[in-house]
Automatic annotation (TrEMBL):
It comes from Streptomyces bobili. Catalyzes the hydrolytic deamination of adenine to hypoxanthine. Plays an important role in the purine salvage pathway and in nitrogen catabolism. HAMAP family: Adenine_deaminase. The lineage of its organism: Bacteria, Bacillati, Actinomycetota, Actinomycetes, Kitasatosporales. The record marks H213 as: Important for catalytic activity. Its EC number is 3.5.4.2. This is Adenine deaminase. InterPro entries: A_deaminase_dom, ADE, Ado/ade_deaminase, Metal_Hydrolase.
Amino acid sequence: MPLPKAELHLHIEGTLEPELAFELAARNNVELPYADTEALCEAYRFEDLQSFLNLYYELMAVLRTERDFEDLADAYLARAAAQGVRHAEIFFDPQAHLARGVGMGTVVEGLWRALGRSETDHGVSTRLIMCFLRDESAESALETLDAAKPYLDRITGIGLDSAEVGHPPVKFREVYEAAAALGLRRVAHAGEEGPPEYITEALDVLGIERVDHGLRCMEDPALVERLVRERIPLTLCPLSNVRLRTVDVLADHPLPAMLDAGLLCTVNSDDPAYFGGYAGDNFDAVRSQLGLGEERLRELARNSFTASFLEDDEKLRARYLAEVEAYEF
Ligand SMILES: Nc1ncnc2[nH]cnc12
Ligand SMILES: [Zn+2]
């Protein structure tokens, strides 16, 4: 039995496996510019975040109907459950779909068809987090929040993703204020490729409660001290960092130093279909490549539930935490 864990940094569009991409392309009569799954996998050699994002947005063309989003989420939840994920807080990128003429209702209702029965089907509780694309305008983010208003009973929070450098958090001050007023939780990608100042700005200006990635905080000791003091969780994605060349090799990943510094770190998969592994694979990788011992792994699992947005179900959180403590390696 794998270690029980929560996954807090997972883009549902990043779980589109090559086989499912071709299946959905055939179902929807969408032509992909790749002959087969092998040719597609050849495209999975990324130079940086942008080279990945180009493929990530290109392949989304196959997602058209509620059933497509349902099948995508269902496939992810089955894989995640098999790797010990007990709770998943799932990002989605509505602007990438709205721009292709796929409505907010199609996306949310489709995902919800799978998420609504996930506890029964997979034993995984879920939350949905709607991300804004930071390389789109602030106006577009506000329009997207408006389009989501009929679905807010299904959306727990908002996030910020896509190309980071050149798109500082302050650009999205207004939409984060509006989301907070609607009672939405707030997270943002910061310090993945962007500088530590973006992490500070996301905390101070956007009021985020968790930092997605946050890797580059290690360049600023005062920021590390603050993150430790304020117990702000970081959702790290080790295999993603290697594939997007944020770190050269996994053995160089700062996760052990971050844990030693007292940071509330979690381990997640980001875009597992593209980066070579789901949540459990990321745990296995940090165990074998970074030499993390059993108590460090238990700490990471404990942190994942502590950092989750389960304030509306503390009994469930307590049950998960008890499972972590009772786990025998
Ligand atoms: N790792 C990542 N960083 C920024 N935006 C993303 N969208 C999907 N994955 C992402
Ligand atoms: Zn991400």
